[in-house]
Amino acid sequence: MTHAILILGAAMAADGRPGPALIRRARHGAALWADMPGALVVASGGGGEAAAIAAICVDAGVPEARIVQETRSRNTAENIAFSAPLLAARGIGRVTLVTDYYHLPRARLLARRAGLRVVPAAPRHGIGRPHRHAWLVLREAAALLLALSGRRRP
């Protein structure tokens, strides 16, 4: 196995259920796996995110044996930092990186810095409420600038 699908976690609802971004990412990752069933799926995210991603993927037909959970990360930098050794231990350096389109530039930068060869993959995403979309894009732009500067996001 030389390829993995790395699905980055996203916020969980206050009641512990997966939020819309997490569901969207997990479903997209599972659909990608259906086209490359030899790939390993890495579900990345602490606070129940990895388990939720794994459950959604299993429900979509990904065998549990093809899923590895990274359960310690609390942010994008940790998603990548904690997933990279799991991948390296399996001899995997090439990943399809699954996250939302507005999040891809920063996630891709961090993954490349961790030595991963990245194929970006974002699920289709309706714009939704314009102010929410604008907020997400602006937040990610600021976080990308911090990542480029080498400073950590709070």
From TrEMBL:
Alphabetical GO biological process terms: Gram-negative-bacterium-type cell wall biogenesis; peptidoglycan metabolic process
Segments forming domain DUF218: 4-134
Kindly give the CDD domains that the UniProt entry links to this protein. YdcF-like
One of its Pfam families is: DUF218
UniProt superkingdom: Bacteria
Give me the Gene Ontology terms describing cellular component: plasma membrane
Recorded protein name is DUF218 domain-containing protein
